[in-house]
Amino acid sequence: MTATSRPAPGRSMAPKPSLRSNTSRGSILADRVATAALWGTGMFVLVLLGSIIVHFALAAWGVVSPSFLLSDPSSATLGGIMPVLWNSLYMLVLTMLIAVPVGILGGIYMSEYAGENAVTSAIRFAEESISSVPSIVVGLFGLILFVDNAHWGFTALAGALALTFFNLPLMTRLAEQALRAVPQDERSASLALGATKWQTIRHVVVPLAIPGLITGVILTAGRVFGEAAVLLFTSGLGTPPHYNFGNFDLTSPVSPWSPFRPATTLSVYIYKLNSEGLGAFKNQIVDGSAAVLISMVLLFNLGARFVGLLLTRRMTAS
Amino acid sequence: MSTGDEMPATAIYTEPLMRRVEVAAPAAAAADDAAVQTAAVKIAAEHVSISYGEKVAVRDVSLVVQPRSILALIGPSGSGKSTFLRCFNRMNDLIPGASVKGEVCLDGENVMDPQVSVVELRRRVGMVFQRPNPFPMSIYENVAYGPRRRGQNDRRKLDELVETSLKRAALWDEVKDDLRRKSGLALSGGQQQRLCIARVLATDPDVILMDEPASALDPVSTLRIEELMRELREAYTIVIVTHNMQQAARVSDVTAFFTMAEDRAGYLVEVGPTGQIFTRPNERLTEDYISGRFG
Q1: Which candidate, A110, B76, B83, B273, has a CA 20 to 30 Å from the CA of A204?
Q2: What CATH number corresponds to the domain at position B48?
């Protein structure tokens, strides 16, 4: 066989264009445009995030200080945000205490036990629908159910439960996705070694899903920090009193540890101050609070990733 | 199973890689009577049919496996070899819609019996998969996984078990210095597969199922796995699915040839001593497959 032999059937004899010719100019151009557009979009998002952070960092310069974080609000002076900051953390813990365990257990059920049928499709549809219900509607629902009908009044617990309403479906859905993403091979390997289904879930599937589960926790927590509409109607929007942290009476309406007290969070406080606040320091307090809120979200996300890393190490002993 | 012709058994077992040479020479056609004449039966499959919903994957397969022997299942893709293998440790249970008819007896007990605990069964019948799948844990924890799940938490016993299992799997010398520091995933493909074998050995099985254990490995690692199989044969019963006919010829004592029928259902064409199957098969279909005229 030589290079000059007959071409294979169906192959053209026409000479190929030079490698330097530009016959594929169109697709090369499209490739460059796509690269530029995707790179540009990514940069746009980064710049947006950066400018928000920079804006509030600059605005909060000179406002945020240890005393701003640690003192009570005041109408006459700059005052501080200690009680509302406390309430945000408190609501976070209270909501996550309900949403994370129930969400993960629900996710395990949906991913490992439920299978694919009409009921699970209905559950998934419900999860997605509930988590996209406008939060003001969820707030109204919480108001009617917990505040009015249950006669709890504005309480941290009512707020946490209302938040759970639309956080739990999200957490469950994300947990399910994280667990489903664990390769089937790992489950087979464990079962083939004579592990039970629960042992397989506990020692292989959940540890491998931790990064995904942490993403779920972060997204859920972000909504707790940021949510104002749900909490306006459920945990209240009054300026909190001075908290006495020595009061551990969990049923007291004034103890900062009690879930049965109104609990205005940082987001709600920003909303309130910005829309109806008076006083010379209003804008500074709003800017400072916003900067603190952003920092808290960032700190929480980093912290959650770190805990996730430790958990993965510990659970897989690697 | 027919017995018959002789094959120099010692030459095969002490030097597994010689097997190919034996088989290549038609005059050496022979059966390994040491394996075949033993009356003992480790596994007996009787009229096993497996279907996924409407689709029949395996039809009416009966065969026996002697203790401390290697049975190779060969045949074209889709002939149901792997599906058949997976009914020995009931891994087919995991596939929705799969149903198995017939009996598979392990030491005389039908493993299909609803009373049988699959957990207990899978400790007796271990499995090595096609793609090495160590857990993303340390080498130590990979091997200790099975024993730990059985409640073995005694540090000294686990240490010992991990060491003997890794030694048996011919991996100890390569990993003994970073058992706890190194992840199982940091090993090479061949080492990962030997780790998976060590992990199975640590559960103290009687039978080891291997589903194309070397198909993802390079030739050198493949030979190491094959040597290891020959060593393990001294203590365990092994059933291997392989696409590599030289491999079947090199390592196995008995070979079963599967193919599929017109309706795509897999069935057993013939089973017999490896030497005979590869040199003087009884069935035309087997001969065509072995000699590369089909599949």
Answers
A1: B83
A2: 3.40.50.300
* A203 touches B: beta carbon within 8 Å: yes
Backbone φ and ψ of B142, nearest 5°:
-60, -45
Residue B47 Cα distances to B58, B122, B199, angstroms: 10, 22, 32
Interface check for A204 against chain B (CB to CB < 8 A): the answer is: yes
CB atoms within 10 A of CB A294: 19
Whether residues A199 and B149 touch (CB distance < 8 A) is answered with: yes
| CB of A193 closer than 8 Å to CB of A100 | no
Can you list the positions of beta strands (E) in B53-138?
55-65, 70-74, 98-106, 109-110, 125-128
At B15 the three-state DSSP class reads coil
For residue B167, is it within any domain?
Answer: no
* Residue B146 in contact with partner chain A when CB distance is under 8 A: yes
The secondary element (H helix, E strand) that includes residue B273 is strand B266-273
Q: List the domains of chain A with CATH numbers.
A: 65-316 (1.10.3720.10)
Which chain B residue is nearest to residue A205, measuring alpha carbons?
B135
How many domains would you assign to chain B?
1
Tokens of B180: 């706890």
- A87 touching chain B per CB within 8 A: no
Q: Which domain holds residue B212?
A: 9-131+207-290
B119 within a domain of the structure (yes/no): yes
d(CA A293, CA A299): 10
Cβ–Cβ of A193/B200 closer than 8 Å? yes
User: Could you tell me which residues come within 8 angstroms of residue B79 by beta carbon, excluding any fewer than 6 positions away?
Assistant: B258, B259, B260, B266, B267
Q: β-strand B207-211 against B125-128: which pairing, if any?
A: parallel
Look at residue A154 and give its three-state secondary structure.
Answer: coil
Helix H or strand E encompassing A138? helix A135-142
B212 part of a folded domain: yes
The CA-based dihedral angle spanning residues A175, A179, A180, A186, taken in that order and rounded to the nearest 10 degrees: 180
Nearest to A186 among B94, B126, B135 (CB): B135
State the residue for tokens 């009570």: A72
pTM: 0.80
| Cα A315 to chain centroid, rounded | 23
Query: Strands of B109-110's sheet, edge to edge?
Result: B109-110, B98-106, B43-52, B55-65, B266-273, B254-260, B70-74, B237-241, B207-211, B125-128
Task: Please list the pLDDT of chain A residue by residue as tens digits (318 residues).
Answer: 445 556 677 787 788 888 877 777 888 899 999 999 999 999 999 999 999 989 988 988 888 888 888 888 877 777 788 899 999 999 999 999 999 999 999 999 999 998 888 999 999 999 888 888 898 999 999 999 999 998 898 999 999 999 998 889 999 999 999 999 999 999 999 999 999 999 999 999 999 999 899 989 988 888 888 888 899 999 988 877 788 888 888 887 778 898 888 889 999 999 988 888 777 788 888 889 999 999 988 888 888 889 888 888 877 664
In-domain check, residue B174: no
In residues, how long is chain B? Answer: 295
ipTM of the complex: 0.83
Q: What is the DSSP letter of B203?
A: T
**Distance separating alpha carbons of residues B209 and A193, to the nearest angstrom:** 12
How crowded is residue B202: how many other Cβ atoms within 10 Å of its Cβ?
A: 26
Query: Which DSSP category does A56 fall into?
Result: H
